[in-house]
Amino acid sequence: MRQLQGMDASFVALETRNSPMHIGSILVYNPETAPGSFVRFKDILQFIGERAQLSRTMRQRLVRVPFDLDYPYWVEDPDFDLEYHVRHVALPQPGDWRQLCIQAARIFARPLDLERPPWEFTVVEGLDNVPGVAKGSFAMVTKVHHAAIDGMSGIDLMEALHTLRPTDPPPATPDNWKPERIPNPIELLGKSYFNAVTNPLRQLEVAAKAAPGLAKAIKGLVVKNFSVSADMIAPKSRFNRAISPHRVVEGRSFKLADIKAIRLLADGAKVNDVFLAIIGGAMRKYLLAKNDLPKKTLTAMAPISVRASGEKGDMGNQVAAMIAPLGTHIEDPAERLAFVTSQTANSKAMSDAIGARNMTEMSKVSPALFMALGAQLYTRLGLANRGVAPPFTTVVTNVPGPPVPIHFTGARLESMMGLLCLTDGLGLGHVVQSYVDEATIAFTADRELLPDPDFYVKCIEDSFAEFLAATQQPASAPASASAPGPAKRKRVAAKARPA
After folding, report:
1. Active-site residue among 22, 85, 145, 146?
2. Predicted pLDDT at 345
3. Which residue from 116, 224, 275, 288 has the highest number of Cβ atoms inside 10 Å of its Cβ?
């Protein structure tokens, strides 16, 4: 039995019917590399069951302390049932890309059962009418509670459930997993009392460790190593309201080589700066079309992984964050990239001064009761509709994926598209995910706040095309984006390939 950390517990506290706090992916597999070029559902169950020992997430459930007086605990579930967590559906005819996105959005909108291990995988068949996808291919929509994983540990889970070669055997080590007894409320209350007594000591320890970073940050402000800019405070937008229980998801893939070429438009620009500037351009186009673009730049919260090499495979979240202005007030793409690059460098310098790891450690000693009450009051009082919104407009999380093809039950993974949880005040989130030689910009949005995902994905395509055109000679035509999919093997026109 292990207790959650502060940030992990916050995702449990924020969970509501309208705000299920899980993250996930849409994965598309080509079975041509599997035995007999075919994968049966029972093969999938067997494959996951054989590899469950490689992931701590798979068979642990949450146990909450009465009245949320302390952080919840992870317990090895005595009632674990693999077939509950792995589901099987098929798209109705014609089974196109848009239908897959609609089905994924419906699946993703449903909360997980937090009295079971908090994850679900849904195998989706019927993709034969998605151009660019091989006949017989299938998708898998994954959902894992954010309390269990962050972006980097999610990649570790991907590694546990995939193989480098289609014929790699299951783990040779015996599976020594054992269930645990679920503690009763009296035991949990006793542990919460002990933690309440010792928590002030942990707070002092964290404060002592954080003090040098705060001093360094103050010094950095004085000598102007970085600045606290007004551009880091976001204006309210249509996406910063209370959300509904409904979701839309979409995404597009681009060649990594093109992203690296765009990076040269601004001195010192990183690949992540390019993605931020493309998303800034897309949000600008979308809001201009709605006559709803604020004069001040919108901003993104960009998570920063602080997971050490020794924490690879650990459950939970090891992330800090920085605020990244998106340059939505700038029309010229090259100028927007230069602005984003300078602003992210400033934000990173500030995070480095304070110490990103210190930010994460501080969250671990926040009083659980106050965290839970604050989260519930924010939702129940509708504060997101009363002008109390997060200090950022959207989230843009960059998750590096495998640089080589990987396989699931022998089937080759063709593409991957990340999905995010939303909460009141945050109705639009983006995941940038790389795989082999392509990168996908995907978004999850509240359907009431962004009812036209086809238009917003076109805004992403157009923003990318403007950047790519800026890298080429005037006589050259800009390349179009394509729907996420198998980049090296099948590259087709926009909206013709899946994620």
Report:
1. 146
2. 87
3. 275
Q: State mean pLDDT over 1-24.
A: 87
- The per-residue pLDDT for 487 is 40
Q: Is the peptide bond before 94 cis (omega within 30 degrees of 0)?
A: yes
Q: Alpha-carbon distance 80 to 178, whole Å? A: 11
Q: Nearest Cα to 463, choosing from 351, 326, 355, 360?
A: 326
Tokens 């999380």 belong to: 397
Question: Mind listing the pLDDT tens digit for each residue in 24-52?
Answer: 999 999 999 999 999 999 999 999 999 99
- The closest of 353, 413, 454, 395 to 165, measured between CA atoms, is 413
Task: Note the pLDDT of residue 491.
Answer: 33
Q: Are 92 and 99 in contact (CB under 8 A)?
A: yes
CA distances (Å), 47 to each of 51, 57, 169, 226, in order? 6, 16, 10, 50
What are residue 265's DSSP bridge partners?
none
Q: Which conformational region is residue 246 in: left (phi greater than 0), alpha (psi within -120 to 50 degrees), or beta?
A: beta
- Residue 146 catalytic? yes
Q: Which residues touch 416 (CB under 8 Å, ≥6 apart)?
A: 25, 26, 27, 28, 401, 433, 435, 440, 484, 499
Pick 486 or 301 by higher pLDDT: 301
The CA–CA distances, whole Å, from 262 to 18, 397, 467 equal 38, 19, 6
For 59, 82, 128, 141, 357, the CA distances from 123, given in Å and listed in that order, are 19, 14, 15, 7, 37
Q: Note the maximum CA span of the chain.
A: 75
Secondary structure (DSSP) of 378-444: HHHTTGGGGT---SSSEEEEEE---SS--EETTEEEEEEEEE---BTTB-EEEEEEEETTEEEEEEE
Taking alpha carbons only, the member of 79, 314, 109, 248 closest to residue 179 is 79
Q: What is the DSSP string of 6-57?
A: HHHHHHHHT--SS---EEEEEEEEEGGGSGGG---HHHHHHHHHHHGGG-SS
Mean pLDDT, the chain, whole residue set:
82
pLDDT in tens, 185-218: 999 988 876 665 555 555 555 555 555 555 555 5
Pair of tokens at residue 342: 């300078």
| Helix 368-380 × helix 6-13 angle, to 10° | 30
Confidence tier at 471 by pLDDT (50, 70, 90): very high
